[in-house]
Amino acid sequence: MLPEIPILMEQYRALLEILPEQHPEYPNMLTYYRRQEAGRKGEDSLCYYLEQAQVPSLHLLNGLRLEHPSSFQLDWLVLGLGFRAIFEVKSHTGEIYFDAKSHQLTRTIAGVTEGFDDPLLQVDRQYAKMRTFLSDHVIYQLPTYRFVVFVNRNVILRLHDYPEYKRVLTAQQVPSILEALAEQHPPVISEEANQAIAHFLVNNHRERMASILEKHHILWDDLIKGVPCPNCSRRSMNRTRMRWQCEYCDTRSTDAHLPVLYYLALLTGNQLTKRLVQSFLQIESGEATRKLITRAGYVKFGVKKGVYYSHPYILAATKNESGHKSQKSGHKTIESGHKIYKSGHEI
Ligand SMILES: [Zn+2]
Fold first, then answer.
1. How many CB atoms within 10 Å of residue 2?
2. Per-domain residue ranges for the chain?
3. Among residues 110, 249, 315, 337, which is most buried (max CB within 10 A)?
4. Separation of 235 CA from ligand 1 center, angstroms?
5. How many Å lie between the centroid of ligand 1 and the Cα of residue 243?
6. Omega before residue 236 within 30° of 0, cis
7. Phi, psi (5° rounding) for residue 315?
């Protein structure tokens, strides 16, 4: 399953919800989150151009992440009947220049020049891993083209000395590139086979989940406890007669704890313990806490002191589902005939 929003991004969003703004790491976390958001936005913006390509039976996969032989993630993978293409998306602005002498790409913005890794090397490495993945799973190989796409309109590419300048594109070039490739490579596999391959890849998608608290040296005790009011956002609601009650605005709620449970699931690597939940919901009864977790649909694992609970959606996104039946069925085909696997849905 490809989740609607990358789990890693959801983790940072969850952290920002319960990390006090005065915390020394708060500005850093905000920067992390915004950077991911910008990357995601860049990938989204390429979708429009991919859809413009007048090529029948394309499957478009956004953010596919596989863990074999080692993990790798593709911003966009296009599966055609006679060819495939990988697009690495860059959202840089400013002037991108290739220095033929140093063999380095540099970016200049507001008079400041910085070097960055050659994105084509990056996409070529991803391709090498994908090739291994496909051959280990006995999936038919097709000629696979690798591109880097600069999606920001405010970018100026000065790459005439770059040996592979033809593989560095602006978003506007993408539809005609795909059309040219389709013309060059007539269908080799059937539509059914292509669809089966797309499903197989999506079912093998493994979302990345990081221990972000550990990574940034943030303690559980640093985080804000209590259930915020869904109406006035103030903390903490009181639990009385099986409901949450806000003492400021008198709002009553039966499910105000759900966002808190979800934040905790994201921050614990999807392993909620009753004790942790109890301390964050600030309720006295352990048994009441357990009921709130299970009624919220969390899945129980382990026994006795090793019991933990997992959110089913995060579980589906992070666990290998190969061997299971595909969760999705019944595709909606869009006008161009492409099937897009983005945000967890085929649209
Ligand atoms: Zn309130």
1. 21
2. 7-209, 218-318
3. 315
4. 8
5. 13
6. yes
7. -60, -45
CA–CA separation, 66 and 58 (whole Å): 20
Residue 335 has pLDDT above 60, yes or no: no
Query: Quick check: 337 pLDDT over 80?
Result: no
Tell me how far the alpha carbon of residue 24 lies from the centroid of ligand 1, in angstroms: 28
Residue 251 Cα to ligand 1 middle (Å) = 5
244: CA distance to ligand 1 center in Å?
A: 10
pLDDT score recorded for residue 61: 96
Q: pLDDT class for 177, splitting at 50, 70, 90?
A: very high
Beta-ladder partners of 84: 79, 144
**Cis-peptide into 228, omega within 30 deg:** no
310 Cα–ligand 1 center, Å: 29
How many degrees, rounded to 5, is the angle at CA 131 between CA 269 and CA 82?
A: 120
Domain 7-209 coded CATH 3.40.1350.10: yes
pLDDT at 235: 94
- State the residue for tokens 């929003």: 5
Supply the pLDDT for residue 320.
Answer: 47
Q: What is the pLDDT of residues 122-172, one digit of tens each?
A: 999 999 999 999 999 999 999 999 999 999 988 998 888 888 889 999 999
Please, where are the H alpha helices in 19-166? 26-52, 119-136
CA angle at 125 for the pair 119 and 127, rounded to the nearest 5°: 105
The pair of three-digit structure tokens given for residue 246, joined into one six-digit string: 């806000």
Instruction: Report in angstroms the alpha-carbon separations of 305 from 200, 274, 275, 277.
Output: 37, 10, 11, 15
- Backbone φ and ψ for 42, nearest 5 degrees, come out as -60, -45
Distance 291 CA to ligand 1 centre (A): 24
Residue-wise pLDDT for 74-88, tens only, equals 999 999 999 999 999
d(CA 34, ligand 1 centre) in Å: 28
